[in-house]
């Protein structure tokens, strides 16, 4: 049975999760305004214990490959690398944007809709990409300063633009009055999504 520990530190929410055969066993998260470094190892230890597992039971570790906070990503990656080296298991880097999009597939987006995951890059800037509901890449990862006409190139072609991630919160103010935008407020970068995508 393949057991994967996932680590997500791209934003101020530090989360970890354990999946077996792609099924979520348990997860834990903390909101941290400052560095994840002091809490991440303890969070992992507590979660592994909660699952009645040992580190030696892990077959792989999935870690956020970004985009997001440079410091947070560096801490997550260095922790994951250290564990993989000690346990001699593979490290799987997963895009936080792709992992969120994989999860949103279960919301049943319209066939002619467009998935637009976003991660906050401060002020009115976001990291984003655009994908079809089947996860075909329509626009690659890029950074964008949000303006009222930022997505005009998509609005005529696609029936609904699904915006999600912690960058979508500020997009909501700009696009809430536009009929073909839908904000999925409860979808943010999470280790719960990483492990599922890493397995499949």
TrEMBL record:
Keywords: Transferase
SUPFAM superfamilies to which the protein is assigned, alphabetical: Actin-like ATPase domain
Organism expressing this protein natively: Marivirga lumbricoides
Positions of the Gcp-like domain: 33-188
Molecular function terms, GO-annotated: transferase activity
Name this polypeptide is given: tRNA (Adenosine(37)-N6)-threonylcarbamoyltransferase complex dimerization subunit type 1 TsaB
GO biological process, one term: tRNA threonylcarbamoyladenosine modification
One Pfam entry name: TsaD
Origin superkingdom: Bacteria
One GO CC term on file: cytosol
Gene3D superfamilies (alphabetical): 3.30.420.40
CDD domains: ASKHA_NBD_TsaB
């Amino acid at each position: 049975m393949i057991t994967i520990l996932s680590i997500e530190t791209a934003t101020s929410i530090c989360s970890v999760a354990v999946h077996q055969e792609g099924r979520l066993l348990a997860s834990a998260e903390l909101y941290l305004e400052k560095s994840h470094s002091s809490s991440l190892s303890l969070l992992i230890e507590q979660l592994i214990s909660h699952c009645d597992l040992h580190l030696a039971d892990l077959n792989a570790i999935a870690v956020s490959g970004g985009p997001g906070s440079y410091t947070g990503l560096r801490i997550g990656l260095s922790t994951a690398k250290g564990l993989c080296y000690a346990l001699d298991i593979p490290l799987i880097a997963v895009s936080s944007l792709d992992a969120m999009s994989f999860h949103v597939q279960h919301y049943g987006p319209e066939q002619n809709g467009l998935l637009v995951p976003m991660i906050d890059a401060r002020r009115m800037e976001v990291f984003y990409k655009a994908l079809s509901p089947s996860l075909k890449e329509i626009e690659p990862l890029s950074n964008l300063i949000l303006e009222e006409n930022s997505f005009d190139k998509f609005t005529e072609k696609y029936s609904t633009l699904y915006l999600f991630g912690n960058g979508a919160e500020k997009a909501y103010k700009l696009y809430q009055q536009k009929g073909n935008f839908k904000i999925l407020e409860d979808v943010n970068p999470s280790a719960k999504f990483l492990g599922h995508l890493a397995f499949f």
